[in-house]
Design a protein that fits this description.
It comes from Triticum aestivum (Wheat). The structure is a single chain. By secondary structure, the protein is of the alpha/beta class. Among the domains are: about 25 residues; about 140 residues, no CATH class. The strands form 2 sheets. Strands 1-2-3-4-5-7-9-11-12-13-14-15 form a 12-stranded parallel sheet. A 3-stranded parallel sheet has the order 6-8-10. The protein is globular, with a radius of gyration of 27 Å. It starts with a helix and ends in a 9-residue tail after the last strand.
Amino acid sequence: MKNKNGRRRRNKAARKEASAGNGEGDRLSKLPNDLLLNILERVDTLDAIRVCVLSKQMLKLPTMLSQFFLSFDSIPAYHDKARVSSLSLSDVFRTNSAVAHVTDNILTTRSPEITISKLKIRFILMQPDSLTIGKSVASAMATQKVDAAEFEIVTEKPYKICSSADLLHHGKQFNDFVCACPNAFAGLRRLWLRNMRFGALDIPNILTTCKLLESLRLTHCDSGIHSVLQVEHAQLVELLVDYGQFERVELICLPKLKHVAYTNWSSCEDPMYFGFVPQLSKLSLTKIGVRSEKNIELSQLLANVPSISELHLDFRSEKIWIIPECPKLLASVLSKLQHVNLDHLPEGCDLAWTMFILEAAPSLKELCITVWDHWCIIFTDKEFRKENGFCDKADVKWKPYAPNFKHKNLVKLTIYGFQPDDNFV
């Protein structure tokens, strides 16, 4: 009994000490509201709410936030490699429902006098959660000032296990969502869609609904195999297309477009057509090239785009799919080029061909080259490579047009993976 009583006394004393410590040491809740809000707006909103419910003084702060980031993957174990395997789909779906509930609760109870400077919601396309989110955001846009709203929409099935029927189903789900909440999409600034197959007119109709859209990203999305995506929009500034089965992306009329990125197109011809894009300045192309596919001539691809200042080409450690051209042919399209990144050139590739960019771009200030056989992305099986047309050697034939050429404006040359051999020197 003595030991037991002694242990009780020690535990009681420890609790008193901890309580006293909390009274003096709860520094977070004693900070000024403006500083607390600044801290809370830097983390996921669900995490911010978890912090606020621990203190009576902070309970009102979630309704005073001006920036929100709500995500279905905001589960404490989601980003912990040691624990993520224990998560079930029901855990993720439950958090998705929590995102919908919190979105509705915060947007309907917060003061309309506080401007929402940023509202980003990442959620799974499933009912009734999507509808709850869409209607809550639409109501907030109608009754409050929302500067920038963003949807990042994920499907229940990941792309790797999606059939064509699944992709079509996801596309229909999204179309139904847009039809049910047109006012929410009318006020969106950024939209990222994944794993969807649309009808021929669906994407143009979506863009018509999203009148204020500034950024559109499509990942594993298309309108069917060998379909053509035609894009017209008055406000779009950024277009990112990752994978998908488009034969061609045609940028018809985009007066404010500044940045385009296209990853792993499936066409054997030029992947893009540039119409009226007077402000386009940044272009990024990423492709795992094979022998049968057509190489790109920048003079043809960029014939209507004389304003490119940043060019990023990623070869994914495989075939070089750019043709070195005569500087005279490229002078009109690369005259304003200032920054070039050539990523994942295969090891053993002669770099002399990259000089054609220097010769054709007198305004170039920075050239960055990365030479790397990235074993996580390249195929190593010899039979597979042969059957699918992968090149064994990636050398590019090129002869300098000006043997004594000197570049007057280049400020920085960076080569990652440099080796002191004939390919580099």
